[in-house]
Amino acid sequence: MRLTWNAPVTLAVVGTSTAVMVATAIMGPWFTQWFFVLDPGRGWFNPLGLLTMLTYAFGHGSWEHLASNMTFLLLLGPLLEEKYGSKDLAIMMAITTVAIAVVNNVFFSTGLLGASGLVFLLIVLSSFTNLRQGAIPVTAILVAVLFLGKEFLAGFDSDGISQMAHIMGGICGLAFGLLATDSSKHNG
User: Fold this and answer.
1) pTM (two decimals)
2) 2 falls within a domain
3) Residue 1 domain flag
4) Spatial contact of 103 and 94, defined as CB atoms under 8 Å apart
5) How far apart are CA 30 and CA 28, in angstroms?
6) CA separation for the pair 114, 163 (Å, rounded)
7) Is residue 59 helix, strand or coil?
């Protein structure tokens, strides 16, 4: 029996996020603060600000935060890489990460870190995995309503969690799932 690198995008995100956490443990919290926290105060034209519009998803506030997000990524990522392909899933993740960063920088003044927006992308997108003849599964609608509704209501709590990132990740998952459904109608 041999090991296979079955989900390269998922494994790259998990590996990078874990490496960032290890580096932070060795070098100190400044490492994550500088390179892996989206800080709207840096501005749109600051090279570090632009870089962190992608890298914030690899930073995590604690080992528990990391473990929680990576567990969901490892559960859902391989399934979605098999369905959509590694390249397409990587593109979806990158678009989602930047979309969350833009919304955060435009509407909020708080920092942002972690892959929870990507987790919500995968949760909602996974409900589209058993499409048949371009139909929209009822489970996809229910997952979107339940997860996004819960996050919208939780947005009124001051718990330090960015429900906006969760909502945007879910919206992106819904949009990509519907786009895939629509393209399967035209291709099938």
Assistant:
1) 0.85
2) no
3) no
4) no
5) 6
6) 12
7) coil
